[in-house]
Structures are given as structure tokens and as C-alpha cells.
Amino acid sequence: MKKFSIAIHGGAGTLVKGLMTSELEAQYKNALKQALHLGYELLRTGGSAVDAVEIAVKSLEDTPLFNAGKGSVFTAEGTHEMDASIMDGQTLNAGSVSLVTGIKNPIALARDVMDKSYHVFLAGEGAMQFAKGQGYTIESPEYFYDEVRYQQWQGIKDSETFQLDHSVKKDGKFGTVGAVACDQDGNVAAATSTGGMTNKKWGRVGDSPMVGAGNYANNKTCAVSCTGSGEFFIRGVVAYDVSCLIEHKGMTLQEASEEVIHKRILDIKGDGGLIAVDAQGHIAMPFNTEGMYRACKTSEGEEIIAIYK
Asked: How far apart are CA 122 and CA 211, in angstroms?
């Protein structure tokens, strides 16, 4: 049996350590642990990497602690617009959705785009039509309402300011969520889901649903899920960049991930982090912010659940 492994993240950037209560820290770590163990159990019993990343991300979408699914931030109009993508490293098949509203688990919808349509990326009204055609229940706005998110929005509503979760230095909740996995057959997969930026306008889309920017998987190289300032991750084509450095420069997973996060993305003034796994089950989780909600577990017994450096 090959080594198998899974890594998850709940966003880069954290509450400044002084503002993080021990109670809150325990809540975050429990949420990470629950998602991690769901994905790991699936891999342990012979499940596929694609199924593992989907089930882990669904778990993170279902908690209001993270900026995805239930915990999504408010747009300038006071709505929730969610993005997600998933990719299978064995086939290079991928599915993405953007600007969807009322969908409890956007990652499940992205998976259906991959498995049940001829397309890769569906957005806005069209994505919603597809969801209804697949029998999705459209949740009411109340399902997504979170008081902390609402207050975050109230602070900058009606202004030209928008906020990346991890740039908030006061009490707030964070992060895009994601998962990467390598299964017992040596197949890798990646999944990423987000509620975007607080007070975002004009249908802004970040890197999370973009194949190659915020999410990528290829058995020949690695699977990557990114979190951070999306505009920079799009410009840097970050997820694919990690894969490229492995494929064309012969770098290890760790070397390529660190080159991208600690040098290439910083060179263009971007910040954030990523999680990555290769077909040998190696894991990398670099970030250049104060922290990154992250967790990983391997078939060799290693388990990490961490927030700060």
C-alpha cells in the first residue's frame, strides 16, 4: 500500500495572537480536526482523493467559523456570493462555480459541474440554473447569516473599502477553505471554497474557483489549494506555478511551494499561503502571513493541527 495523506486549510492570516481566546482557538482546531478526520477516514478505507477533499471541504463549509458556505462574508449589497472549485489529478477533470447564492455546499456543486456537465466553469445565474436542474435546495439568506460577519460588513458598508478576511486586525473570522489529498492509488485531488471579500462589488471573483490560480491537481506533480489575496494569486497563477516548478525545474514539493509563497508571490506584493500534496503523499503548507488555519494527517501517523507559525 502506498502512503496516503490529506491536508486542509481554513485560510491564511489569523486573529492577532492577543485577540485569539483559548476558547476560540479550541473551536477552530476542533473544526479543522473534524474535517481532517472525515477526509482521512475516507482515504484509510480505500476512498478516492476526490471524495476525500470534497467531504473535508463540505465539513468546513458547514461551520460558520470559516469564510465559505455557512460562514460566507457579506457583499456590498448585503448578499452572499460563493465560489468553489475541485480538480482530479488523475484525469485533469475539474469543476468550478462562481457567484452562487443560497447553495449550502458550493464544493458539491463544483463537483457536479465536473462530473455531470461538459463544462469546467459555471457562474452566476447560469450556475444557479444548473444547481436547480440538479435538484439543489436553495437555502434562505438566514442560513448564511452570521453576526460576526454582519458586524464586519457594517464597519465598512457604504464605503469604497473591501476587506480580505486575513487583513482584519480586529475580531473577525477568516478564510477561504481548502483540502488536498493523495489516496492509496497515488491519485491526488484539490478542492477550494470561499465566500470572497467582505463588501465586494461588481461580481468580483477571486482565485479560489480558478483552475491554475487558486486550485490545481495533476498526478504527475501535485495538488494545491491556495488562500490569500486572490488578485495576486490570479496574477501569479500560483497553484499551477507550484506544479510547473516541480515539472520543469525538478524541485521537490516543499521547495516549489516555498519558492512560490516566500519569493514569487511576495515579489508582486501578495500575501497568503497554500497547502500541497504530491503522489508520494508528501505534504507542504507554507504561508507568509502571521498564521494559517491548517491541518494534515498521513498514513504514517503524522498529524498536525495548527494556526500560528
From this structure: 12
Q: Is 176 one of the annotated active-site residues of the chain?
A: yes
Closest CA relative to residue 146, chosen from 78, 225, 220, 232:
78
Bridge partners, residue 192, by sequence: 85, 178
Q: How confident is the model over 163-204, as pLDDT tens digits?
A: 554 444 433 445 799 999 999 999 999 999 999 887 788 888
* Closest listed residue to residue 188, CA positions, set 32, 39, 21: 39
Domain 5-308, CATH homologous superfamily name and number: (Glycosyl)asparaginase (3.60.20.30)
Handedness of CA 295, 178, 94, 269 (dihedral sign): negative
The cell numbers describing 130, all together, are 444548473
The overall longest dimension of the chain from CA atoms, in Å, is 56
Helix (H/G/I), strand (E/B), else coil: 203: coil
Neighbours of 167 (CB within 10 A): 15
pTM over 0.85: yes
Question: Reduced to 3 states, what is the DSSP secondary structure of residue 166?
Answer: helix
Question: Catalytic pick from 176, 221, 227, 289?
Answer: 176
Report the run of H or E that residue 181 belongs to, with start and end.
strand 177-182
CA angle, residues 161, 103, 26, in degrees to nearest 5? 70
Tell me how far apart the alpha carbons of residues 200 and 52 are, in angstroms, rounded to a whole number: 31
CA distances for 132 relative to 118, 172, 282, angstroms = 17, 33, 39
C-alpha 307/C-alpha 20 separation (Å) is: 10
